[in-house]
Design a protein that fits this description.
Layout lengths: L2 H21 L8 H9 L6 H12 L2 H13 L4 H10 L2 H18 L4 H9 L2 H34 L3 H50 L3 H8 L15 H14 L4 H9 L3 H32 L11 H8 L3 H34 L7 H20 L3 H27 L5 H19 L10 H19 L18 H15 L10 E2 L2 E2 H19 L7
Helix pairs in contact: 1-9, 1-15, 2-9, 3-9, 3-12, 3-13, 3-15, 4-13, 4-15, 5-11, 5-13, 5-21, 6-12, 6-13, 7-8, 7-17, 8-9, 8-15, 8-16, 8-17, 9-13, 9-15, 9-16, 10-13, 11-17, 13-21, 14-15, 15-16, 17-18, 17-19, 18-19, 20-21
Length: 538
């Protein structure tokens, strides 16, 4: 049996076995408690499992191929944007995740819309919010099936339709049987495979370069080593815009949102937040570094082919094992996202749109299977342009769904009309911006959208609104001391390494000095989060 086919077979078998083993602990009853166990694992996830599932479900194939392609085209300049920028989202685990976890424990939330329904007292707003959330998530199901099927087909030679079916079927099988418990357990395995594949690829390119990658780039393309970056680069305005976009958008992924509910307690979420910047700093260093080294070893690839730089290098340099592991890392990242999205979307459809009598664990499982089947059918003849357009606006759309949630958590007034108006305005702005009808010069669109929505929420809040939410406020909101917030701002300033713009790179161990500073800022962020102690709820 060829090595890639053997690796894929062993990997899928391992995932299936882990998922089946975890499924044995899932409640099999028909009562609401059994359904909560199926969707959220009974809200008993400890820190390590919670960290693994938060990280794995947020890391997609973009982590493997997208970031190596960005490193190839832009250079190390993309690392502060993605490494510290994604790690910064761990602060949202504290600011947003802990209040939502506390409310969910008291009020029994299952889906993101449950919070909106409870806080704003508007079933119509909750349904509209859930519909928007599903609309920007559904295309990803087909995108995961397409990318995963193509990857397995390339690795093994299996025809693409069968490869896509194999990926979707294995994922749907353990998700249907075990719900959140199976998804979280396989996430831990998939995160390990992702990290191993990235490390193997990084070690392989170091061996190929034999210590000469930086010297080659200094001679041929020093911009790849500069803080500004090659091509369009990553200026400070773009960097801050990406940070804001990811901080707003990522927690609104329905699968991420529900993991806040799934935490066993505040301390579990707090410890997961400590680990999150560390995995971002390390993993993204590896994948961006693969692309930067690839730019030295295999220059001249067109932008559309830059994401395939490592598979091409592995083929040229006869590194089949490293190439197969790198591709398998992408497959694991795809599956860890696909299973979470299947479970979250099925629970949203049942909880937010089905009659109360039809809400059961079996209905959730049936919808997981139906959504998986639809994803596979769509993957057989994917409408590339439509998928590209939808996924291209998905991140900004997630970001504009965030302000009503943040306002619901921290606002003293809950005005459903204001939340609906802010939601409608934000989505309209995203559509106009994606169509090129609105531009704001150097000001990031995410900042403009947030400011506009905040003004709408404030205007409606002053006009009228219920002054207290339905749930007790006491003990819900964590306290943030001014000194801690100032330290967070200082750490973020360090993470930009802005003073290195326009400065010739100084190499330390073949890597620009400012890259090491950016990596260190991820460690400082983790330390800062560790120093914050959540107060027990009242």
């Amino acid at each position: 049996m060829p090595l890639p086919l053997l690796l894929v077979a062993l990997y899928l078998l391992a995932v299936g076995l882990v998922g089946s083993a975890a499924a044995r602990g899932t409640c099999r009853g028909t009562d609401p408690g059994a359904r909560r166990d199926y969707v959220l694992g009974g809200a008993r996830s400890g820190p390590l499992l919670l960290f693994a599932t938060l990280a794995a479900t947020n890391f997609s194939a973009f982590t493997v191929f997208g970031l190596s392609g960005a490193g190839y085209r832009i250079g190390w300049a993309y690392y502060p944007a993605i490494g510290f920028g994604t790690g910064l989202m761990a602060a949202a685990f504290l600011f947003l995740g802990i209040p939502l976890r506390r409310l969910s424990a008291r009020r029994g939330y299952l889906t993101p819309a449950d919070f909106l329904r409870d806080r704003y007292g508007s079933p119509a707003l909750a349904k509209a919010f859930s519909l928007c959330l599903a609309a920007v998530t559904v295309p990803y199901l087909a995108a995961q099936a397409v990318a995963g099927g193509r990857m397995i087909s390339i690795l093994t030679g299996i025809p693409y339709p069968a490869a896509s079916l194999l990926l979707v079927a294995v994922t749907a099988l353990y998700t249907c049987r075990g719900g959140f418990r199976a998804v979280a357990a396989t996430d831990a395995l998939q995160l390990a495979v992702l990290a191993a594949g990235a490390a193997a690829a990084f070690a392989a390119v170091l061996g190929m370069a034999d210590g000469s990658a930086a010297a080659r780039l200094l001679a041929s393309s020093p911009a790849h080593l500069s803080r500004d970056g090659a091509g369009a680069g990553v200026g400070l305005d773009r960097l801050l815009g990406l940070w804001l976009l990811w901080f707003l958008a990522d927690p609104l992924f329905p699968q991420m949102f529900q993991r806040f509910y799934a935490a066993r307690d505040d301390e579990s979420l707090h410890r997961a937040a400590i680990l999150y910047p560390l995995i971002c700093g390390i993993l993204f260093f590896l994948t961006v570094g693969v692309g930067v080294a690839g730019a030295a070893l295999l220059p001249g690839l067109p932008p559309a082919e830059s994401e395939q730089v490592f598979p091409r290098l592995a083929a040229i340099r006869a590194e089949p094992l490293a190439g197969a592991l790198f591709a398998l890392a992408a497959v694991s990242a795809l599956m860890s996202t696909l299973d979470s999205q299947l479970l979250s979307l099925s629970s949203m459809i049942v909880q937010d749109f089905a009659p109360s009598g039809a809400r059961s664990r079996r209905t959730d499982a049936a919808l997981v299977a139906a959504l998986a089947l639809l994803a596979w059918i769509a993957s057989l003849s994917p409408p590339d342009l439509i998928l590209d357009a939808l996924t291209g606006i998905a991140f900004p759309a997630y970001a504009v769904l965030a302000p009503p949630v943040w306002a619901g958590v921290y606002g003293r007034r809950a005005n459903a009309r204001g939340a609906a108006a802010a939601l409608a305005l934000g989505l309209a702005l995203v559509v106009l911006e994606s169509a090129g009808r609105l531009t704001f010069g150097p000001v990031p669109p995410a900042a403009v959208n947030l400011a506009a929505q905040a003004l709408v929420l404030a205007a409606f809040g002053r006009a009228d609104g219920r002054r207290e939410p339905p749930a007790p406020r006491t003990g819900i909101l964590p306290r943030f001391r001014p000194g801690w917030l100032a330290a967070l701002a200082a750490t973020a300033a360090l993470g930009t390494v802005a003073w290195e713009y326009g400065v010739p790179p100084v190499l330390v161990g073949g890597v620009p000095r400012w890259v090491w500073l950016s990596a260190a800022s991820c460690g400082l962020l983790a330390l800062l989060i560790a120093c914050w102690k959540p107060e027990p709820p009242a």
